[in-house]
Amino acid sequence: MIVDVHKYLIFGAKGEMDRFFALAQRAGFLEFIGLSHKKSLELTDEIKTIMAAIKISKRYPTHPHEAPQDIQDPVSLAAKIVELHSTIEQFREEERILTAEISRIAIFGDFSKKDLHEIERDGKRVLQFFCMKSDLARETTLPPEVIFVGTEYDLDYFVAINKEKTRYPKMIEITIEEPVGVLREKLFNLQEKLAHLETTLRHYANALPALQEGLADYLNDYHLRLVKHDVSCPLGESIFLIEAWVPATRIKALFGLLSGLDVVAERIEIEPTDQIPTCMENKGVGKMGEDLVHIYDTPAPTDKDPSSWVMVFFSVFFAMIVSDAGYGLIYLLIALFLKFKFPKLAGSGKRFIKMFIIVSCCCIAWGILTASFFGISIGPDNPFRKTSFIHALAVNKAEYHMREKDEAYHEWEQEFPAVANAQDGHDFLVKAAKTNEKGEVKYQALDEFYDNILMEFSLLMGVFHLSLGMLRYVRRNWSGLGWIIFMAGGYLAFPFIIHATTMANFLGFISKPVAEAWGMQLVYGGIGLAFVLAFFQKKWGAFHEIMNVIQVFSDVLSYLRLYALALAGMIMANTFNEMGGNMGLFGGVLIIVSGHLTNISLSTMGGVIHSLRLNFLEWYHYCWDGGGKLFNPLRLRRAK
């Protein structure tokens, strides 16, 4: 629910200011508006240090019971963590440089720098180290004083012994400051220090909860000072003054807060330039939906809260896209595991698990209704198949064609002569089948009827979903009534154009001739009504309303993604089952398990993305303003 907010001017004795703001922060329902226009306070160094330490600590597994016992305060702890991390980063850079240097000179072996200098002094010779591209070295005749050492990658390495320093064409001289043995010893010592520092840092990182609590305390103090910083004192040091947004549901609480203070609150007019915050108050399913709503945008204060609607339709659309009871069962087991694994989880984490459970149950329910379980092929006589509503619809459709003896019936009869002797719709579906070379029976009528019904159901869901959005905002956009009629007419008339039979036809709600006649009238009548209502509301802006014909039509068709994604998932599941069945026991299990895991991952991504998309794009288009600023009162922050 989106709650109206009122604007109040709060003023009182300067001596009461600290007490008032402390109580307001504890109450947590006042969003203060700065009047002083002073430069905003920057975050303190303590807060920045603790935030940096928290960021570092989150990289390591946390075990609070192993936290250091000598913690004095969160700032000193954070400073130690930041210092340790900085030292580790510095040592890692040194490690990288040493490793690179060792790799560069390792081919020349280990030697003593002192012995090398003695050889050069006593022999009155100069030793130089070179490298050269291997392909060039093969084409070059080397001088006798140049000794080949070895090859690494595409480089050849050499040692030259001369009376004085010499340069050679196409050769690169290598300077060795320290031999590889010394460098390796340095690297070993450095790695020991690094290991010790890493262990110490991991130990301090266990105090992450203490850091988070400390950050909450410092932020609470910072936000309190920030609000006081925005106070205006028009009469010197005697009176303070500030404005605040107050939810309509908390007006009584405001005056209760002020009852023991020498502070007064007066409601004032909202200026046209004010950005009114959006105050959302939801519980249960609505609060879960609110979490989803904030993924996209914050509602405008003039919007109707879509939280519960988004949660319900997200769950339904996700279930329709996954469309498998087996996958839903896996989701439910994961959700229950998380629930018992993290029993103390609160806030958004707890709501996420509850949402996960709801969505899982929806997947199981829809999978049962559509007789889909891990993509297993279930025969038409299977009891599980007969419990599904989609099978009942397919039987009704078959019986309709049998009664009408229409064109579709004759086509099936011509392809499958046995259907002429069918006793009922179920018998029709069973007899319209073929056996392939592997001996597998393919029930073509059954599969085709299922596909058509699911496709039609997706379009009907689109019409229903969009109609609800238009009805929610019909007072703001009268033409929505016309577009609802237009969509209803399209559903009745469009099947006639493509010679299809709809659920409304074979369930006896409306005959095809009546649907055709009424459908076209509703299509044109809906467009006309939308234009007329838009003209009364928007005057000449109504001419833009006509362009919504394409918009509404394309938005309804967009809901076909529910059918398309579900069909893709079903085909992949069935394909993996068939591939696994053709392999041996070990190979078959491996293919089936890995295939279904892949399919579950893709179905989950598709379900989340497209379920949210249908809400945020198609549906919001007709019942959403958005662009709001979330109500953010002064309150005590708690460590997460």
Write the layout of secondary structure elements.
Blueprint: E1 2-3, E2 5-13, H1 17-27, E3 31-33, H2 45-57, H3 74-105, H4 113-123, E4 126-133, H5 134-139, E5 146-152, E6 155-162, E7 172-174, H6 180-205, H7 208-229, E8 239-247, H8 251-258, E9 263-268, E10 277-280, H9 285-296, H10 307-322, H11 325-341, H12 348-369, H13 383-386, H14 389-404, H15 407-415, H16 425-431, E11 433-435, E12 441-443, H17 444-472, H18 480-497, H19 503-506, H20 512-538, H21 542-545, H22 548-558, H23 560-581, H24 585-623, E13 629-630
Parallel strand pairs: 10-13
Antiparallel strand pairs: 1-10, 2-8, 2-9, 3-8, 4-6, 4-7, 5-6, 11-12
Helix pairs in contact: 1-7, 2-3, 2-6, 2-7, 3-6, 3-7, 9-10, 9-12, 10-12, 10-23, 10-24, 11-12, 14-16, 14-17, 17-18, 17-22, 17-23, 17-24, 18-20, 23-24
How many DSSP helices? 24
The largest β sheet comes out as:
4 strands, antiparallel
Helix amount: 55-70%
How many strand segments?
13
Mean of residue pLDDT values: 88
Spatial shape = flat
How far apart the termini lie comes to: 25 Å
Low-pLDDT parts are none
Could you say how many structural domains there are in total? 5
Computed CA radius of gyration, to the nearest angstrom: 37 Å
Percent in strands: 5-15%
Q: What structural category characterises the helix and strand content?
A: alpha+beta
The side-by-side strand order for the widest beta sheet comes to 3-8-2-9
